[in-house]
Amino acid sequence: MPDGYDDTWNQNVERMESKTERLKVGLFVPCRVDGFQPEVAWSAVHRLREAGVDIDYPLEQLCCGREFYQLGYKADARQQAERFVHTFSDYDYVVSCGSACVNYLRQRLPELCADMPCAAQAVRLAGRVYELCEFLCRTLSYRPRLLRYNHTVAFFSHCTSPRGAEYGAVADFLSQVEGLRLVPMQAVCCGGASHFSSHFAELSAAMARDRLAEAVRLGADCIVGVETECLMHLRAHAEQMQSAVRVLHVMELLDEVANEATL
Fold it and tell me: What DSSP letter does each residue of 91-134 carry, written as one string?
């Protein structure tokens, strides 16, 4: 057993299992995770199972409609919003590894479904959609323990998140990982929004390089975040620059640390 191990951990697990056994939790996987980084979704499942959550992945789920809404295709966004409500309305909580989609659903779901038969369901559901770290540490009081990572990690927050909210939840979530030093990055865009990066490629690339240079100045070995759109953009430019700074979703980092601990 690890040094310092006592029965507190077993007691916490038993209490957590008691707290989660009655919960019906649905996992919403954003398009970019599903299409380009499915390993993030698997890492999320590992953490939820470790927390004692009996997670469900409804196969009927599709895009939440955020991209349609941002590009002005409101009719399509409404159609996707209605589908989301019908897919997830029976769950006690909906959790996701993409913070931009979570913020969009919280803010726009009631608006988009306001004149539909599912309007009341949409209002209730919008209040039950959570980013994964927030759900685990704030709702379930779960934090990964008995892990060590002796490195400095820079946290990058997505533009649409309430200022400081994402960092606070992630800092709380990672607080029991020994040796990990989490430092916030500036609240400055990375340039990764899909329509922005395609129309203003040079500016988008320069913004990503600035964020990577900031991580180096902070003495960080890697950048972590909870929004895949940003992380994919930063990772692509880090690889292009052959930067020593790695870019990971928080759930990927924890999977990596947990795997190393079992070796």
Answer: -SEEEES-HHHHHHHHHHHHHHTTTSTTHHHHHHHHTTEEEHHH
